[in-house]
Amino acid sequence: AAAAALGAATAGMSFCFFAAVGRIPVGQAVSIEFLGPLAIALSGSRRALDLVWAGCAALGVWLLTAGEAARADLPGIGFAFASGLFWAAYILLTRRVGRDFARSQGLALSMAVAAVIGLPVGILPHWRAITPLAAIGMALIALLSPILAFGLEMAALRRMEPRQFGIFMSLEPVAAALMGYLILGQHLRGMQLAGMACVTLASCGTVLTRPRPRGAGKKITKVP
Question: Residues with Cβ < 8 Å from 167, sequence gap 6 or more?
Answer without folding.
Answer: 204, 207, 208
